Amino acid sequence: MPGSLRAIELFAGVGGFRVGLEKSGWKVVWSNQYEPSSKTRQHASWIYKYRFGESEDNHVNQDINEVLDQMSNGGRPLPQEHDLLVGGFPCQDYSVARVLNQAAGLIGQKGVLWWSIFGLLKLLRSRGRQPRFLLLENVDRLIKSPAGQRGRDFAVMLASLQLLGYRVEWRVINAADYGFPQRRRRIFIVGEMSEYSSDDQKSKCSPEETLFQDGILAQALNVQQPSGACQFDLKTGFPLSEKAIGKLDLLSDKKIQTYLGDISAGFGRGTSKSPFRNAGLMINGQVHTVDVKAIELPESERHNLRHVVQKAKEYRVENNLDEDVEKHFYLDEGQLGKWEILKGPKNAERTHRVTGHQYFYQEGRVGFPDSLEKPSRTILTGEGGSTPSRFKHVIKDSNGLRRLTPEELEILNGFDPGHTKTPPDYPVITDGKRAFLMGNAVVVGIVEKIGLELDKRMKASKNRKSTIDKYSHSTTPEDLVATPADY
Q1: Active-site residue, 230 included
Q2: Which of 84, 91, 155, 218 is the catalytic position?
Q3: For the sheet containing 279-283, what is the strand order?
Q4: Cβ(281)–Cβ(207) under 8 Å?
Q5: pLDDT above 50 (res 67)
């Protein structure tokens, strides 16, 4: 059930962050979801409103940039006060070039939305409403983008959060490493206002201790500890920019744009490899980064595709549905040859359309059918529909080869089966669209684990404050030093 800690959700989709947060003690008090490719078919927003019963005031189905303009000029109230902002911001076209010309600099219809996050946080800061925590999610290639200037995009994002006063942790997380039934690698970014981190003694830890033991992500999702000499390669203390920068509140928009523009122009230039590893920490523009590995789980704590299929079957029985999957999910025997070719290995000579350069195109074999004894491959947005595809999941059951049902895809992301199914009086949402929405969704269990750790830190701060208020007239400063019992 939702708790008393408040969060807002951007780019909400069908509510994956919300489901995970509500399981970990948080209450989402405001959300935004808008699909720019269609003004009339807002499937994700329809599902969100149906599932969570939100009003137009609390769930805004409108372009976030229009919402920001309305908030800035007083035409719309700010979101309710909150402690956490979350969002899986769209990853398409997120190149960070051209920030010199305007504060909104990401190229592409959806990619510009990074600057919507920055703009909203900047507006909230100006009104004294900036949240203590951020939790963002994106594809793991973000730390390597773009190809010609490795790491530049992520460096500009980190610098943006630095300007807003956040210390930032990040980690590339494969959900299957933590027992979930899908091999889905995503980067999770956690920000905490620097002014708050001083009330937690763990903030005084070294970068190594933060990344391996005591940081938010290290506590939420444990990793293997370094052992012996030279067991890890920690790149520590390199700056995002050689130029110092002051507090955001004292900077003009031009200075902000110039600072971010200089990073965009120079960071990663002339290098073939991103300096950012799969885990890291940024404090005051200084970066500490290292590759970490998840702790090996015992077999009893791992979930695989067979568990998902069984859970979906139980759902069908409980809801008085036919135990057998509908016939249209089974592969057309006349199409099996195409499926086998697409799933098979490739090694073909091709010619570049522009340069005329000849090269060999290679692909490895994809399991056909997919193994039920392992976590699934990553769900993609093209998972739905009967057309043969290299990337769609195909499993074998007692009736033959078939694609995964929407309920199975929902379970793979940690939703309750039927989450994207709406009643007859709602607009029709096809099985293909339901699959598409799951390709865009977050793994709920990862959000829940991080949410639990943020919940602990919020409660520790409140408990400590109440203790200080209670004894402030009868104790010395030395008596108020936090102890392990406070955490």
Answers
A1: no
A2: 91
A3: 59-60, 26-32, 5-10, 84-87, 133-139, 185-193, 166-174, 279-283, 286-290, 235-239
A4: yes
A5: yes
Spatial neighbors of 283 by CB under 8 A, at least 6 apart, are 167, 194
Residue 65 CB-density burial (10 A; 0-12 exposed, 13-18 middle, 19+ buried)? middle
pLDDT, averaged across the chain: 87
Instruction: Give domain 5-297+443-474's CATH architecture.
Output: 3-Layer(aba) Sandwich (3.40)
Q: Compute how many other C-beta atoms are within 10 angstroms of the C-beta atom of residue 395.
A: 21
pLDDT above 90: residue 30: yes
Query: What is the per-residue pLDDT for 464?
Result: 59
Look at residues 145, 37, 144, 13 and name the one whose alpha carbon lies nearest to residue 413: 13
370/462: higher pLDDT = 370
Domain locations in the chain? 5-297+443-474, 304-420
Token pair listed for 461? 């701060």
R_g (Cα) of the chain, nearest Å: 24
Taking CA 437 as the corner, what is the angle to CA 157 and CA 189, rounded to the nearest 5 degrees?
A: 25
The overall pTM is greater than 0.85: yes
The backbone region for 120, taken as left when phi is positive above 0, alpha when psi lies in -120 to 50, beta otherwise, is: alpha
